[in-house]
Amino acid sequence: MTEMTNEGCATEAYLGIDIGSISTKGVVIDGDANIIARSYLWTEGDPAGASKRVAAELASQLDEGVRIVGAGTTGSARRLVGAMIGATVIKNEITAHAVGTTYLHPEVRTILEIGGQDSKIICVEDGIAVDYAMNTLCAAGTGSFLSSQAARLGVEVEEFGKIALTSTKPANIAARCTVFAESDLVHKIQVGYAREDIIAGLCRAVASNYLNNVGKGKRVDAPIVFQGGVSKNEGVVHSFEELLGQEVLVDPDGHLMGAFGSALLALKAGPVDAQSVQDGPFASGAFDFQAVRDFQFKTREVECQKCPNNCEIICVYRDKDLIDSWGNRCERGAVKTTGEAAQA
Predict the structure, then answer these.
(1) pLDDT tens for residues 10-61?
(2) Cα–Cα nearest to 332, from 317, 318, 316, 311
(3) Helices (H), the chain
(4) CA 113: distance to chain centroid?
(5) CB–CB of 36/13 below 8 Å?
(6) Disulfide engineering: 129 pairs with which of 22, 98, 140, 213, CB 3.0-4.6 Å?
(7) Residue range 139-158, pLDDT digits in tens
């Protein structure tokens, strides 16, 4: 998909950002859904700042002839960052991951995803997500859990998978929760278990914990695609394959799938109508990375008292302008974006 301009042939592209509690991911795709820029950075408790850094890294990878004409966001801070980048599509993680994965793997039946602080399973039929489950209450078995155990063992978490594969007798680690797992880990170290066996045991415990909790009651049918940051751990992949007795696919861009799905949804929605945008990154018709870097905002929480729900509504302001709001569970709490400070 290209557009002729006075400066020559410009490539129309679409931006997708996935803002998680641990990491923020971004991709830019062309009109044929090819990834032409990618970024993966730590959120560090600042989703807006992380998104700005991701945008800057993506911009550095793009040729001069690329014009971003649409954007999408997903993840825990999708509404906030969506307001910041002028996103045309803002979707939850289940939708974004399902869209991205089914595009690259049309036959997929089960999507396993383990991120920094949560995990999810998505069941797919005929390219459509028909069931899912999420675990956001316990950190056991997530990326942050593995990172903390790696630090305890004095091993880089990136080396966990390779070390785990050298084990011939994985230790039995109780990973029902973080507290039990850490206690069991310390005990195994004290009684002299080999480091590779402990690491292999941790990888197996992550896979087992996931299947017994997140995947409980769900059909895990092949083809199976494993994604999220933990999918880069070869030891966890191997453990899933052993426990399931089936091959588990890991896409090279599996850790970016939420961002990719968001970009695909923006592509499907089409270019932004420049005439309908008064300010923000798309005010000139094409995405302005400098506008994202310069974006300053404040959030304010307002309690709506117009019905018994008493919704806590989050309002995002740029200077005195209310640019977005969310949190209302009925239309009574809806807040109109205006050029002046507004009240819920």
Answers:
(1) 799 999 999 987 889 999 999 999 999 999 998 888 888 999 999 999 999 9
(2) 311
(3) 47-61, 78-85, 93-104, 143-153, 160-164, 178-190, 195-213, 234-244, 257-269, 289-293
(4) 10
(5) yes
(6) 98
(7) 566 777 888 888 888 888 88
CA-based nearest residue to 111, from 237, 258, 225: 225
- Percentage with pLDDT > 90 across the chain: 42
Q: b/e per residue, 283-310, with b = 16+ CB within 10 A?
A: eeebbbbebbeebeeeeeebebeeeeee
Chain centroid to Cα 27, Å, comes to: 11
Peptide bond into 170 cis (omega under 30): no
- Interhelix angle 234-244/195-213, rounded to 10 degrees, is 60
Give the Cα separation of 145 and 343 in Å (integer).
42
Q: What angle do CA 275, 318, 21 make, to 5 degrees?
A: 105
With residue 89 as reference, give the H or E element that holds it: strand 89-90
For 202, residues 6+ apart whose C-beta sits below 8 A from its C-beta are 146, 149, 160, 164, 173, 175, 181, 185, 235
Q: How many CA atoms lie within 13 A of 78 on its CB side?
A: 22
* CA–CA gap between residue 284 and residue 272 (Å, rounded): 10
Distance CA 69, CA 285 (A): 7
Please give the structure tokens belonging to residue 118.
């949560």
How far is the C-alpha of 76 from the C-alpha of 25, rounded, in Å?
12
- Map tokens 């205006």 to a residue: 338
| CB distance 136 to 214 below 8 Å | no
Tokens representing residue 140 in the block: 């056991």
Distance CA 209, CA 204 (A): 8
Q: Convert 245-261 to b/e letters by CB count within 10 Å (16 or more is b).
A: eeebbbbebbbbbbbbb
Joined together, the tokens standing for residue 178 give 């973080």
Give this prediction's pTM. 0.82
Q: Rounded CA gap, 123 and 112, in Å?
A: 9
DSSP, residue by residue, 228-277: SGGGG-HHHHHHHHHHHTS-EE--TTGGGHHHHHHHHHHHHH-S--GGG-
